Amino acid sequence: MGNLWEKAKLGRICSKISRGSSVKITGEICKESVVPFVRSHNIGDGIFIYDGLSFIEYSVSERIKSVRLQEGDILINMRLSSSLRFTMVPEDIIGGIVNQHVSVIRVKKHIIDPVFLKYFLMWDKTQNSLISMAMKGSARTTLTKKVIENLEVYIPPMNQQKKIAFILSSLDHKIKLNNEMNEVINEMANTIFQYLFVDFIPFSGDEFRKSELGNIPDGWGIEKMKDIVPVTDGTHESPKKEKTGYKLITSRNIKNNSIEFKNINFISKEDFKRINRRSKVEKFDILITMIGSIGNTLLVQDECIDYAIKNVGLIKTSLNKEMAEFIFMHLSSDRMKNYIKTKIKGNNQKYISLRELRNIPVIIPPDNVIMKFNKLISKLYKKMAQNNFSNSNLINIRNESLPKLVSGKVLKYY
After folding, report:
1. 92 burial class (0-12, 13-18, 19+ CB within 10 angstroms)?
2. For the whole model, what pTM was predicted?
3. Which of the two residues, 9 and 138, has the higher pLDDT score?
4. pLDDT tens per residue, range 299-319
5. What is residue 412's predicted lDDT score, i.e. its pLDDT?
């Protein structure tokens, strides 16, 4: 670390460190969507997650003893049962409030740049320090204000803080743009699928017949997934964790047609080979989550696959590539998501069985219809794959650069 870098406890360089209040979310409270109400699941790893964001009426928010969010505020999820996550308050969430599982850090901006601090907090070493302090002599499940205040923070000169923040935020901005482009592409693909295979617009003049998936054009078929492609799942065992090696993917890692590699477990080469004898993942296969968040899907488009799967369904569309994108979109449709919900079992731990995956019904259009669909879709998914590959590289660069930058190990380059 450079000679000009100082250290200070976080509490000394902040004007506020505060947690929110408990609010019972009801339909009546959310009737007028005025004030954003942020909960722990809205805090991503350096990003704000809008899915599941709640709102409360202004009159209700005025009665709640909770900090009003300002520009530059940093949010932390305080539950130690999940990985610690930090993000900045987005512009459209300013003025909102947080619940009791979220802490707000408001810095003295003449001392430390909030964007630099966000990345410092995302550093694994910082997170390990917070967890260690929180767990010391107790079995706490949440961070406390005192623990956050006592965290020791590196403080470079302001010009270096700004440079470090710019480098890391530029990488994240490019990742965000790629994700936004993929969302648009995915929406286009879904619109095409809906047009052809749900609303059947081009076939409206044909005769229709009843099926277990509703009315379909006469001459089309319904087959079980297992009769189209082999269906299996990953290991049900828990291989020994390694510090490095091959990645082990579980349901929690599959979201939005991508894999989140943060907080992933590593396994040995021997375990990787053993799992792959049962469930080797290949390009054009489809993964589907079977436990916890059920029904999330991923169309594998990587050339080199360095991970194995655990408790994840594996649909071997690599053996029938012409059907890969069609089956993936079939599984991603609202119709099939609703169907899968009816097959979920379990009380404490929700799951869907391999038998149910194998028996998922699939609409089978004529070959010429599938060919036309593939021609429309293939370029879209190729672009999505390119964006995902780019993001994978950008994330690796960010993750490798972050600890070096926020610790001062590359100070000489600035």
Report:
1. exposed
2. 0.80
3. 9
4. 998 888 989 999 999 999 999
5. 46
pLDDT in tens, 247-293: 999 998 898 788 887 778 899 999 999 999 989 999 999 999 999 88
Q: How many CA atoms lie within 13 A of 302 on its CB side?
A: 19
In sign, the C-alpha dihedral spanning 121, 13, 38, 347 is: positive
Please report, as a single letter, which amino acid is at residue 256. N
Residue 314's DSSP bridge partners are: 232, 287
Q: Which long-range contacts (CB under 8 A, 24 or more apart) does 402-406 make?
A: 402/119, 402/122, 402/123, 402/168, 403/123, 403/124, 403/125, 405/119, 405/164, 405/167, 405/168, 406/116, 406/119, 406/120, 406/123, 406/154, 406/164
Read off the pLDDT of residues 28-54 as tens digits, 9 standing for 90 and up. Answer: 445 455 889 999 889 988 889 888 888
For the chain, give the number of residues: 414
Output 283-286 pairs: Cβ under 8 A, ≥24 positions apart. 283/318, 284/317, 284/318, 284/321, 284/324, 285/314, 285/315, 285/316, 285/317, 285/318, 285/324, 286/314, 286/315, 286/317, 286/324, 286/327, 286/328, 286/331
Q: Indicate whether 221 pLDDT > 70.
A: yes
